[in-house]
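$ fold --in a.seq
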Amino acid sequence: MGLWTRVRLPPNPLDHRYTNPSSNTRVSVFGNVFGIIIELSQPPRTKEYALTFGGIIHWVYDHYEVRISRSTITQVRNKCGLSSLEARGEKEIVLPNLKSEKEKMVIEAFKNLGIV
């Protein structure tokens, strides 16, 4: 008698390796069992954030681990006198006095992304 499982484990280590040239992951295949190998020796890629509501929300969450809403971004945008979220490197914008911590985080995202 033996132990019956739904997963078949290979008797030998995984031998066949296929390398994905676009990232630092490899897939090893043995019969119908596969494994994903992730090498952490390479530094992670820096994220690119879009000049959209989603990009600003992700930037704030990645740097401060705080969830913000689209309405907070819209309030800060209106207080700055902006009509849209566009990069404005040459135009000087007067920054308003903000009381909320979330609004200050949104201003930091605007500065980092080149909106103000």
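$ fold --in b.seq
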Amino acid sequence: MNLVIRPMEDLFFSDEAFIKKERDKARKLRSSQWWKRKRSTGICHYCEKQFLPGELTMDHIIPLSRGGKSVKYNLVPCCKECNTNKQQLLPIEWAEYMSRLKE
């Protein structure tokens, strides 16, 4: 079995047309009843703290730059701080980051 090691840049999805299309989909979903109900809980998906619904942002669990899509199962409400800190991390990378913070 041959194992191929790729540079970190290859892990990022660079098709700008794809990213633009997915961002447009996310904008449309932001005005949907589904998103309003999801956000109305006021709970950040990552830190699980309570916020006013208007303070929560939409985050792609798998970032667009890493091949994620703007579909309901990939979108979660999160606080601005978590969204900023998560950046383009995948769920496993975010979990590792959070565990290091707790140490």
